[in-house]
Amino acid sequence: MSATDQEIKQEYRRNHAARKMAQRLGWLSIGLGVAELLMPGPLARTLGIPGGKTLLRFCGVREIASGVGLLVTKHPKPWMLGRVGGDVMDMAVLGGAVLAGDKPVHALLAAGTVAGVTSLDLACARGLATEDHLVTVYDYSDRSGFPESPDKMRGRASKQSDINTAPQVTGMAAADRETQTRH
Amino acid sequence: MRALRWHGKKDIRCDNHVPDPSIEDPRDAIIKVSSCAICGSDLHLYDGFMPGMMHGDIVGHEFMGEVMEVGSANKKLKVGDRVVVPFTICCGECDQCRRGNYSVCERSNRNKKVAEKLFGHTTAGLYGYTHLTGGYAGGQAEYVRVPFADVGPVVIPNGLTDEQVLFLGDIFPTGWQAAAQCEIEPTDTVAVWGAGPVGQFAIRSAILMGAEQVVCIDNVPERLSMARAGGAITINFDEESVVHRLHELTRGKGPEKCIDSVGMEAHAARSIDSMYDRVKQTMMLETDRPHVLREMIYVCRPAGVLSIPGVYGGLIDKIPFGAAMNKGLTFRMGQTHVNRWTDDLLTRIQEGQIDPSFVITHTVGLEDGPEMYKTFRDKHDGCVKVVLKP
Ligand SMILES: NC(=O)c1ccc[n+]([C@@H]2O[C@H](COP(=O)([O-])OP(=O)(O)OC[C@H]3O[C@@H](n4cnc5c(N)ncnc54)[C@H](O)[C@@H]3O)[C@@H](O)[C@H]2O)c1
Ligand SMILES: [Zn+2]
Ligand SMILES: [Zn+2]
Q1: Which ligand is in closest contact with the Cα of B106?
Q2: Which of A119, A139, A140 to probe the B interface (max B CBs under 10 A)?
Q3: Does the structure show a pLDDT above 60 at A182?
Q4: Which residue is closest in CA terms to ligand 1's atom 21?
Q5: Ligand closest to CA B295
Q6: Is residue B310 within 6 Å of ligand 1 at its C-beta?
């Protein structure tokens, strides 16, 4: 039932897409972290987080650390899981602000954004987790479909391949003047 | 009978007690399916990107088998004939069919009104492919009703296996038309995005039509090795820059002809634009991800041709149309006019010029079909093309 297997060769494969995404999320982390670290006061006020400043500074340090981690590491998976953990924490803080803070609408909007980012983080972590699976390597270099080498086959059909010479009627012969409504 | 049916996004099941089809029009025929395949287009349904599917629709549009029953007005087919059925249903009589534009037949879509609302005009009916194209029951089943069966089906002579001819109904003519639309010159470089089944046939068609150089772009190692087997130079977009490599390979001129055999689910997290598209697609502000289109417009040599067999369903964003216009590019695209090519391609298979079975990596029973959708989509287990035996 499976592909024609010669001797079975297996390897671990990098998930490039997930790694690129991890890098981008790393930069996002750093950006957020810097904002939280440098202006915790205004942020706490906008979000209406009770007792906000210190908490936000702490979150900022955490964000920057996980961002830098993601950018420099060769093994992004644990760092990514760290980010997911951080997201949960942020949601808890914002949840508190929605319920008890004085700017529940702002906090709710922020919570929505964090939820979006969390889903990206989760997708990325899932993508990175696929790197732990062994992948069987199939070699299809014998599947040309041609009776001779591609170089020998080159141009065998060059005369007949024109899209306009294929069997079809054109001009008046093809015109349908009877049908009233055209679809 | 047994059939694969769509029950929602990522939910295709092999159901056991599906009503058998019957003749509804004197031109119909009923086919007992001997082989059918899962197509890249089916993945767009599976992933829920094509609107217009309904709970319980039978999927599949690449199939062949034996004629079981023919309607009274059908003079072409006899019970017992072995036929491949093109996925585009065509009447053979309307203005478009007469011009050979079978995939935009004006009469075969039962749900014209919906299609006209969405696209301005109707296109042909298709098997197992949404209610926008007629809502016809598909071919991943034991039996199928074939409307206008005196036009579409291709009778297969003895001596050829199912595996050799099955793809005449879809991906072989699709790859062929993709290359034919390029009007290939002997000095051309043809760049093919996507090394899936359609890309594989586009590569071989471009070689047969005499392209000096065929380049294939994908990131799946097995598929790239198959592309090389067919005569392509390959670029793994995870490992190298597509733009740079194409620049090198064409001495800075860019490929004269570009083929998009990827379509609306292009995934490439390598640049910020695909993230943007993913987000917009999830928020339903955009239905298709046009990453490949953008790249083709950028790299194509001025006055070149972009040929687009890859399927798009709705709206795309941020197309650098200024570049396309000023570079004088030609866009040619469409669902394949399958019957335009089948006679010629059947002859080529008979003469041994090409054996399309090279692309098959998995052959399973119908009951394993749902599992195979996943394997094919995720390109697991070296999967390139799946054939199901009902
Ligand atoms: N026009 C028609 O009549 C017609 C007929 C059949 C299929 N199709 C369409 O052709 C397309 C391909 O079909 P398939 O069966 O080969 O499907 P497939 O999904 O197996 O192949 C798509 C390939 O594109 C690759 N890919 C994804 N993103 C890419 C990128 N950014 N750059 C380069 N490669 C990328 C994937 O890795 C995959 O190998 C689909 O859109 C399908 O709907 C059209
Ligand atoms: Zn198809
Ligand atoms: Zn017609």
Answers
A1: 3
A2: A140
A3: no
A4: B196
A5: 1
A6: yes
Q: Is the separation of the CB atoms in B269 and B243 below 8 Å?
A: no
- The mean pLDDT value of chain B amounts to 93
What are the backbone angles phi and psi of residue A114, rounded to the nearest 5°? -60, -40
Give the CATH number, domain containing residue B264: 3.40.50.720
Taking CB atoms and an 8 Å limit, are B100 and A153 in contact across chains? no
Domain that holds residue B201: 172-333
Please check whether residues B233 and B84 belong to one and the same domain. no
Q: Is the pLDDT of residue B243 over 70?
A: yes
Rounded CA separation A175/A118 (Å): 58
Considering only the beta carbons, identify the residue of A139, A167, A183 that sits closest to B122.
A183
Q: Does B45 sit in the ligand 1 pocket, CB within 6 Å?
A: no
Establish whether residue B1 lines the binding site of ligand 1, counting it when its CB lies within 6 angstroms of any ligand atom.
no
Structure tokens at B147: 């409307």
A155 vs B: CB within 8 A = yes
* Full-model pTM: 0.87
Residue of B nearest to A173 (CA): B98
Q: Does residue B177 sit in the same domain as residue B161? A: no
Q: Give the ipTM.
A: 0.90
